Amino acid sequence: MLCFVAHPDDIDFGAAGTIATWTASGVDVQYCIMTDGDAGGFSDEHRPDIVERRRQEQRSAAGLVGVETVHFLGHRDGYLEPTEELVASVVELIRRERPQIVLSMHPERNWERIQKSHPDHLACGEAVTRAIYPAVENQYAFPELAAKGLDAYRVPWLWFFGGPTQLENHFVDVTEHVEDKMRALHFHASQHPDIDRMDRAVRAFLSANAERGGLRQGRSAEVFQVVPVNTDATIAGF
């Protein structure tokens, strides 16, 4: 599983419980963080080292849920665009790692809670979508990558989080890993001036997800839009 997000902490809000479930069963999960997070935080005293601080927060959070590899692309926070350069970076990483599932922030805006749809989030989702189809699987796209031995690859599944509620189609019961998710989020201390309030809000969202997904009372869930890209249900070559 290869996860693309815009900022350090995005993946922990959206999918850390699911990732903890997967790594516990032996799945290899890697993260790719597109921006350097320099526009985040709430304290002036953090400004001189905010980029390295946020990278270390993300590494610590990743390690807690069993993720060893975190890639940082280093784009400027708040200015991310789905450029040819960014798409090429995504294509290169996917072709190198050849994941069964690519997980990404959603490219469509969520009007119910616009905070899910930071412009960088949308740019991340759009770049990943453009990369997965058709560039990753087109042997003639980005020929310089093929020249480096990174051949075309067909991604089976694309999972989105943070998109419009009406597009959600897959609920993952993360009840057994809620505390792992919360501990991962607590590593991002530079982003949360009120940790307790953040904790209560995230737990409430997880409970609401579970209720919406039809899980029994007391359960917690993360929610996604799962898109088949190259499966038995899809047709390639058209």
Explain this structure to me?
InterPro entries: GlcNAc_PI_deacetylase-related, LmbE-like_dom_sf. GO terms for molecular function: hydrolase activity, acting on carbon-nitrogen (but not peptide) bonds, in linear amides. It is a single chain. This protein is an alpha/beta fold. It has one domain (2-228): LmbE-like (Rossmann fold), CATH 3.40.50. The protein is 38% helix and 16% strand. It contains seven helices and seven strands. The chain is globular and about 50 Å long. The protein starts with a strand and ends in a 10-residue tail after the last strand.
Total number of beta strands: 7
Shape: globular
Domain unit count: 1
List the uncertain runs: none
For the record, what is the CATH homologous superfamily label? LmbE-like
Query: How would a crystallographer describe the biggest sheet?
Result: 7 strands, mixed
Integer average pLDDT: 95
The CATH class designation is Alpha Beta
Task: Report the C-alpha radius of gyration, rounded.
Answer: 17 Å
CATH architecture: 3-Layer(aba) Sandwich
User: Might you state the CATH topology name?
Assistant: Rossmann fold
Keywords: Zinc
Protein name: LmbE family N-acetylglucosaminyl deacetylase
Organism: Arthrobacter pigmenti
Pfam families: PIG-L
